[in-house]
Write a structure and sequence with these properties.
The complex is a heterodimer of chains A (403) and B (361). Chain A is α/β, with parallel strands linked by helices and 403 residues long. Helix content of chain A is 38%, strand content 15%. In chain A, a hairpin with a 4-residue loop joins strand 10 and strand 11. By secondary structure, chain B is an alpha/beta fold. Helices cover 38% and strands 16% of the residues of chain B. In chain B, helix 1 runs parallel beside helix 2, helix 1 packs across helix 6 and helix 5 crosses helix 7. The N terminus and C terminus of chain B are likely disordered. The chains are: A alpha/beta (403), B alpha/beta (361). Strand 6 of chain A pairs antiparallel with strand 14 of chain B, so a sheet runs across the interface.
Chain lengths: 403, 361
């Protein structure tokens, strides 16, 4: 896989799974890093068979293979795949050579797994003194809850986010597996940390272990509320869509689940809205109610144009699947197993031609095992032997290609 | 790369939560971060009537975003302000901002090595017609799909609490800046990094789009299956469990035989969701969320107590890791704020030997 891009020359060994790790290494790969994803076929990335969100999977009657999972085909793009049984003694030499040629190893296992695999940071650094280990842990490496199992909702609860998200007077609300906000936040921050770590290691000659605690990131994103509490003793609680200094709300329009989001930032905004509604000195709640009555039978786009013409900040509430039509410039074409797919590109742009590109779709497990083993200096005979013994998987791809 | 003689210099042009958080993150990695304010020291005026006096919250937010920075603030009109423009990284919230009469594009032309990062709410769609360009974080949530996917299906779309639109932009810019600096080490030239709340939030809501594009499924907000948020004696518990965790959940909660039989399968629990939640809450309402969380986690069930902001300050995990730290405010009163959410070689501080990487100028 010929790479260029902003991260040309950056090499990552990807031991991560599911969203937080997969999305982190996907951005690195999108911007030109050589990302080698290592999986054991007996314990592949669960994302390859993910049914949690829509239930589509092995029971739906469709052909199911390791690229059947819709989300995996996004996070798996631009990466090379190696199939290795990490528990096999012979695998250790493979991993040693991979680490020796990598800049960073990225993982998000439960704490203790790296130790059981014999891949502690001390061991990695013994193989490569400049290696960076980026751990995306749930609670951090230490502390009484370091061993906690967690998914997104666990982190939203323990991180404080749920305590400030919810309808007025209602129960705490989580973002559900459809969004899974903590994982997405990690996947925006972690790539930068990985790159910084590698730059630091190259400058100093010493590798480092960076541990990003996902729960702590959730709380960091509420840091302003923590400070406000310590200065005022007022515990923040959910207020629906209202926030300090703003009256934000949604009103329903014509059509199923069609809404308009309105933002009032000043008394002048309120006065303008009151004027077009024919209201006198209304409160924010009264404005929302009155506007809701006015817009109930109107198309949401038409409603937005009407509000904006009056100088009111308004936008249609789009579903995620509508963003492709409204903002096509955000999307890229990615080769899929049976057709080209339209996927969201990247969260930021760099104004250099070719800084980020799509070079390949997601790979089958072990699709690049043969070529990578050859790069690592293993002979054809050694590769065949390890394949026959079940140490490596997918090497047949390379053999078939060379015959 | 860490602080010191060769530390990279970052200048925030004006104040915006997105660029301020990005600057805070870069400062934590040893970069020297300063800010140019058009009028140093001014604050937004509070607004009367329906508008909560926001000036204290906004001042507290600034305390958080500037904590840990060795930030120097200067006016763009002052000599020190102009000198401060000799930076490795410029963070701007508006691509049209002028600094000393120069646009950010002109600054890049004057210094090809500088990395400029712009939190541009106009995104890449300055000329597009259609739903328009978001004016606020709430609007960006609306246009990105973010708002539509949170809350209950039959109720108003719901924002995620806090300043997530601005902070998501900050995280995007942070990674973009580091990528551009990496590239500069090899190429010798800077770049312009752009992001926006719209782009960042839409990127985060990617699953809604891919499931529709590939499977024709339209994800709607809310969840009537799987995990539940249940009331306890002292608040709420996020009772998240996988199907294989159900035996442990039953045992920890002490679910009566009748209820255990009635809700023996995931399908039954989902089909009769309200009754299931009521049966669970009949038990949890008499128990502490902290105790339940500990007991469930001891069995490998990924449940989580819903902690309030005040409870975060009392949390043993955070205390043991030194995550919440005290800082002095300009008024002399001390406040508590989260540290950076990462450790390096087990420590919150940067490695002592981390010097170097500063750009030759």
């Amino acid at each position: 896989m010929g790479n260029s891009g902003a991260l040309d020359g950056f090499r990552a060994l990807d031991l991560s799974r599911i969203t937080a790790g997969g999305r982190t290494t996907q951005i690195l790969a999108d911007f030109g890093a050589d990302v080698v994803k290592l999986e054991s076929p007996s314990s592949p990335d669960p994302f390859r068979h993910w049914t949690m969100v829509t239930g589509v999977g092995a029971d739906d009657g469709a052909t199911v293979d390791d690229l059947s999972s819709t989300p995996f085909r996004t996070v798996g793009r631009n990466k090379r795949s190696m199939g290795v049984d990490l528990k096999a003694p012979q695998a250790r030499e493979i991993v040693r050579r991979l680490v020796a040629q990598s800049d960073v190893v990225i993982e998000n296992f439960r704490r203790g797994v790296l130790e059981r695999l014999g891949l502690t940071f001390e061991q990695l650094r013994a193989w490569n003194p400049r290696i960076v280990l980026l751990s995306l842990s749930s609670q951090g490496e230490t502390g009484p809850t370091a061993s906690y199992a967690s998914y997104g909702v666990t982190l939203e609860a323990l991180g404080g986010l749920m305590s400030i998200t919810g309808y007025e007077g209602g129960a705490p609300t989580w973002t559900t597996s459809k969004l899974n906000y903590p994982d997405q936040a990690v996947s925006l921050l972690a790539p930068g940390l990985a790159v910084w770590g590698v730059m630091h290691a190259r400058a100093t000659g010493h590798g480092i272990h960076i541990d990003l605690a996902q729960r702590e990131l959730v709380t960091s994103l509420l840091g302003d509320l923590v400070v406000d509490y310590t200065m005022t003793d007022e515990v923040p609680v959910p207020h629906g869509n209202r926030t300090p200094g703003a009256v934000d709300f949604c009103v329903r329009c014509a059509g199923e689940n069609h809404w308009v989001a309105v933002s009032l930032r000043s008394d002048d905004d309120c006065a303008r809205l009151a004027a077009i509604l024919g209201e006198r000195d209304p409160t924010g709640d009264e404005l929302q109610r009155s506007l809701g009555e006015r817009l109930a039978a109107r198309d949401r786009f038409e409603a937005v144009r009407w509000l904006r013409a009056a100088g009111i900040a308004a936008a249609p509430v789009l579903a995620g699947y509508e963003t492709e039509e409204q903002f096509p410039e955000f999307f890229v074409s990615v080769p899929g197993p049976d057709r080209v797919e339209n996927q969201f590109g990247w969260p930021f742009t760099i104004d250099v031609e070719g800084a980020a590109t799509i070079r390949a779709g997601a790979a089958h497990i072990g699709q690049h095992t043969g070529e990578i083993l050859a790069e690592l200096g293993f002979s054809a005979g050694e590769v065949e032997s390890m394949s026959d013994e079940g140490v490596v998987f997918g090497a047949a791809f390379a053999r078939e290609g060379s015959e | 790369m860490s602080g010191g003689q060769n530390a990279l210099r970052v200048v925030e042009i004006g104040y915006h939560p997105a660029t301020a958080l990005c600057g805070k993150l870069l400062a934590a990695l040893g970069m020297e971060v300063s800010r140019l304010d058009a009028d140093a020291g001014t604050m937004e005026a509070s607004r009367p009537s329906d508008f909560t006096d926001n000036s204290s919250f906004e001042s507290h937010r600034r305390l958080y975003l500037d904590a840990g920075k060795g930030a120097a603030f200067a006016s763009t009109r002052s000599p020190s302000g102009s000198a401060a423009l000799a930076a490795d990284v410029l963070l701007a919230s508006d691509p049209a901002v002028l600094v000393g009469g120069k646009s950010v594009d002109a600054l890049r032309t004057a210094d090809p090595r500088v990395v400029v990062a712009v939190a541009d709410e106009r995104g890449d769609s300055a000329d597009v017609e259609g739903p328009g360009i978001p004016d606020t974080g709430f609007q960006a949530m609306a246009l990105s799909g973010f708002l539509s996917i949170v809350g209950e299906a039959d109720r108003e779309p719901l924002r995620i609490g806090g300043s997530q639109a601005e902070y998501a932009t900050a995280l995007s810019l942070f990674s973009g800046v580091l990528f551009a600096l990496y590239r500069r080490d090899a190429s010798g030239t800077g770049a312009t990094v752009s992001s926006s709340a719209l782009r960042s939030l839409a990127y985060m809501d990617w699953k809604t789009e891919v499931y529709h594009e590939r499977e024709g499924k339209r994800l709607v907000r809310g969840s009537r299956t799987g995990p539940a948020v249940v009331r306890c004696l002292d608040g709420y518990l996020g009772l998240y469990y996988r199907p294989e965790d159900w035996p442990a959940v039953k045992e920890v909660l002490g679910l009566p035989d009748g209820a255990a039989e009635r809700f023996a399968t995931q399908k039954r629990r989902d089909d009769d969701r309200d009754a299931f939640a009521a049966a669970i809450e009949a038990i949890t309402i008499a128990e502490s969320k902290h105790d339940l969380c500990s007991r469930l986690q001891a069995r490998g069930v990924p449940a989580g107590a819903v902690l309030t902001v005040s409870e975060l300050l009392e949390d043993e995990q955070y205390a043991s890791r030194g995550f919440l730290q005290a800082y002095p405010s300009p008024s002399g009163r001390w406040f508590i704020a989260p540290a950076m959410p990462w450790t390096i070689d087990g420590a919150r501080e940067l490695p002592v030997d981390g010097v170097g990487g500063g750009a030759e100028r």
